[in-house]
Every structure is written in structure tokens, then in C-alpha cells.
Amino acid sequence: MLSRGYILSKDALSRARAFDESHQLSGSAAAKAAELSRRLGLTDRVSAGVGAIRSVDETYHVTETTKTVATATGRTAVKVMNTIVTSSYFSAGAMMVSDALTRAAKAAENLAAHGRQN
Length: 118
Known about the structure:
Blueprint (H helix, E strand, L loop, with lengths): L1 H22 L1 H16 L1 H19 L1 H24 L2 H30 L1
């Protein structure tokens, strides 16, 4: 079944390629897009926009500021996590959860053992 699907899709692809070549759809679409871009000056405008962004970045050091903020945020998050983990409340809560899980595991074990006996 999979091989038939592969053969059908391969056949459909080759037919589509032949249709495109006979009617030159891809070539004419690319030519029209290039002509439209040239008429509107799209490439020049995009290049000017990229240049303006680079200029702002060089002037205000946006990239470096962003990196610095991200680094500081990461350090703060690590400090907060260390504070939480070393907290006595966190430790007590972790012990309670661990104890509850141990009890649940023992209850499940007892239930399974009881089921095997019957």
C-alpha cells in the first residue's frame, strides 16, 4: 500500500513538473515577481530597512543590551531557584510529598499482592 502511494505521488509529481515545463508557469511567475519588485523598488526598500536597523543597533547597542539583560535575568532566576531549594519550607514540603508517594507505592504493592493471592 505504501509503495503504491509512493508510486502515485511520484507519478503526480512528474506530471506536475511536465505541466509546469510545458506552460512555463514557474518561469513566468518568477519573471513577474522580479519585474514587480523592480517596479516597486522592493529590493531597495528592504535593503534600506535592513541598513536602518543596523544603524539603530550600532547607535544604541540594542543587541548588547539585550544580551546583558538576558544574562542578568538568567542569573536572577538561578539565585531564586537556589533560595527556594535551600528553603526549610521547600525541604519540609519535599519530605511530605516523598512520604506520601512512599505510602502510595506501598498501598499499590499491597493491593497487587492481594490480587495475586485471589
